[in-house]
TrEMBL record:
Its main location: other. Pfam families: MORN (PF02493). Keywords: Cell projection, Cilium, Cytoplasm, Cytoskeleton, Flagellum, Repeat. Gene3D superfamilies: Histone H3 K4-specific methyltransferase SET7/9 N-terminal domain. Interacts with RSPH6A. Does not appear to be part of the axonemal radial spoke complexes 1 or 2. It comes from the Eukaryota. It is found in: Cell projection, Cilium, Flagellum; Cytoplasm, Cytoskeleton, Cilium axoneme. This is Uncharacterized protein.
Amino acid sequence: IGHWCHGKRHGKGSIYYNQEGTSWYEGDWVYNIRNGWGIRCYKSGNIYEGQWENNMRHGEGRMRWLTANEEYTGQWEKGIQ
């Protein structure tokens, strides 16, 4: 769901990774790559909300690990907090 350009996700959009709807991403895309701001909900229930670059958490963001009842808010560098 969202904007497309030359057959690729581009602009604002969302994708569901499973039929149950428990694993999804909603946010910015640049030619099929998560780039910009977005929210990623994982099948485990964990949620990341923040900046993306080249499909990785990168920049300011917040990760909530629901099963461990933990949260991190701050900078991410190529997927690493």
